[in-house]
Amino acid sequence: MGTVYRCAGCGADLNLSAAHLYPEDAHFEAGNKGTFSFSWVDDARLQFAKEDRIKPFFETPNYWGIQRKRTRLLCDTCGHLLGHVYDDGPPMMRGHGQLGFAHSHTIPRAPRYRFKIKALNISYC
Length: 125
Hints:
The protein is mostly beta strands. It has one helix at 103-106, and strands spanning 3-7, 35-38, 46-60, 63-75, 81-86, 112-116, 120-124.
Protein backbone atom coordinates (compact mmCIF):
# COMPACT_ATOMS: atom_id res chain seq x y z
CA MET A 1 0.00 0.00 0.00
CA GLY A 2 1.50 3.33 -1.02
CA THR A 3 0.85 7.00 -0.48
CA VAL A 4 0.81 9.53 -3.31
CA TYR A 5 1.47 13.18 -2.51
CA ARG A 6 0.22 15.66 -5.13
CA CYS A 7 0.24 19.44 -5.42
CA ALA A 8 -3.11 20.88 -4.25
CA GLY A 9 -2.82 23.60 -6.90
CA CYS A 10 -2.50 21.50 -10.06
CA GLY A 11 -2.53 17.84 -9.01
CA ALA A 12 1.04 17.11 -10.15
CA ASP A 13 2.67 14.07 -8.52
CA LEU A 14 5.52 15.33 -6.31
CA ASN A 15 7.21 11.91 -6.07
CA LEU A 16 7.43 12.10 -2.27
CA SER A 17 7.96 8.83 -0.44
CA ALA A 18 6.53 7.90 2.96
CA ALA A 19 9.87 6.13 3.53
CA HIS A 20 11.49 9.58 3.86
CA LEU A 21 8.78 11.00 6.12
CA TYR A 22 9.84 11.97 9.65
CA PRO A 23 7.60 10.57 12.44
CA GLU A 24 4.80 12.87 13.62
CA ASP A 25 6.30 13.08 17.11
CA ALA A 26 9.78 14.10 15.88
CA HIS A 27 11.00 17.31 17.54
CA PHE A 28 12.27 20.19 15.39
CA GLU A 29 13.33 23.67 16.47
CA ALA A 30 11.03 25.27 13.91
CA GLY A 31 8.09 23.10 14.94
CA ASN A 32 6.07 20.64 12.90
CA LYS A 33 2.44 21.71 13.41
CA GLY A 34 0.21 21.36 10.34
CA THR A 35 3.02 20.02 8.20
CA PHE A 36 4.69 16.88 6.90
CA SER A 37 8.49 16.78 7.08
CA PHE A 38 10.62 14.76 4.68
CA SER A 39 14.34 13.99 4.71
CA TRP A 40 14.53 13.72 0.89
CA VAL A 41 12.64 15.15 -2.09
CA ASP A 42 12.81 14.75 -5.86
CA ASP A 43 14.52 17.96 -7.05
CA ALA A 44 13.08 17.54 -10.55
CA ARG A 45 9.50 18.01 -9.26
CA LEU A 46 10.16 21.17 -7.22
CA GLN A 47 11.49 24.70 -7.59
CA PHE A 48 13.63 26.17 -4.83
CA ALA A 49 13.49 29.93 -4.19
CA LYS A 50 15.73 31.61 -1.61
CA GLU A 51 13.91 33.85 0.85
CA ASP A 52 15.70 36.46 2.96
CA ARG A 53 13.39 38.79 4.88
CA ILE A 54 13.88 41.12 7.78
CA LYS A 55 10.65 40.65 9.65
CA PRO A 56 10.09 39.26 13.15
CA PHE A 57 8.99 35.63 13.20
CA PHE A 58 7.96 33.29 15.99
CA GLU A 59 7.68 29.60 15.10
CA THR A 60 8.18 28.14 18.58
CA PRO A 61 9.48 29.55 21.89
CA ASN A 62 12.97 28.34 20.91
CA TYR A 63 12.85 29.26 17.22
CA TRP A 64 12.33 32.96 16.59
CA GLY A 65 14.26 35.93 15.27
CA ILE A 66 14.29 39.07 13.18
CA GLN A 67 15.92 37.95 9.93
CA ARG A 68 14.57 34.82 8.30
CA LYS A 69 16.69 33.00 5.75
CA ARG A 70 15.05 29.94 4.28
CA THR A 71 14.20 28.32 0.97
CA ARG A 72 10.67 28.14 -0.41
CA LEU A 73 9.44 24.87 -1.96
CA LEU A 74 7.33 25.49 -5.05
CA CYS A 75 5.58 23.07 -7.40
CA ASP A 76 7.62 22.86 -10.61
CA THR A 77 4.45 22.57 -12.71
CA CYS A 78 2.33 25.47 -11.40
CA GLY A 79 4.54 27.40 -8.95
CA HIS A 80 2.19 26.80 -5.98
CA LEU A 81 3.89 27.32 -2.59
CA LEU A 82 4.16 23.90 -0.92
CA GLY A 83 6.39 24.64 2.07
CA HIS A 84 9.96 25.50 3.09
CA VAL A 85 13.35 23.94 3.65
CA TYR A 86 14.69 24.22 7.20
CA ASP A 87 18.15 23.41 8.54
CA ASP A 88 16.93 21.78 11.76
CA GLY A 89 17.03 18.14 10.67
CA PRO A 90 19.19 15.51 12.37
CA PRO A 91 22.89 16.31 12.92
CA MET A 92 25.11 15.38 9.97
CA MET A 93 27.93 14.40 12.31
CA ARG A 94 28.31 13.07 15.83
CA GLY A 95 29.65 14.87 18.87
CA HIS A 96 29.08 17.99 20.91
CA GLY A 97 29.47 21.31 19.19
CA GLN A 98 32.36 23.71 19.44
CA LEU A 99 32.85 25.08 22.93
CA GLY A 100 29.91 22.99 24.20
CA PHE A 101 27.22 25.05 22.40
CA ALA A 102 23.95 23.47 21.31
CA HIS A 103 23.98 21.14 18.31
CA SER A 104 21.97 23.37 15.98
CA HIS A 105 24.40 26.24 16.29
CA THR A 106 27.68 24.43 15.74
CA ILE A 107 27.12 21.06 14.09
CA PRO A 108 25.85 21.01 10.49
CA ARG A 109 22.33 19.64 10.25
CA ALA A 110 20.56 17.84 7.44
CA PRO A 111 17.91 19.78 5.55
CA ARG A 112 14.27 19.16 6.46
CA TYR A 113 11.71 19.60 3.71
CA ARG A 114 8.57 20.86 5.47
CA PHE A 115 5.37 20.68 3.40
CA LYS A 116 2.12 22.34 4.47
CA ILE A 117 -0.65 19.76 4.77
CA LYS A 118 -3.09 22.14 3.06
CA ALA A 119 -0.73 22.43 0.06
CA LEU A 120 -0.87 18.67 -0.62
CA ASN A 121 -3.52 16.29 -1.92
CA ILE A 122 -2.81 12.91 -0.35
CA SER A 123 -4.19 9.65 -1.67
CA TYR A 124 -3.64 6.16 -0.35
CA CYS A 125 -3.34 3.31 -2.86
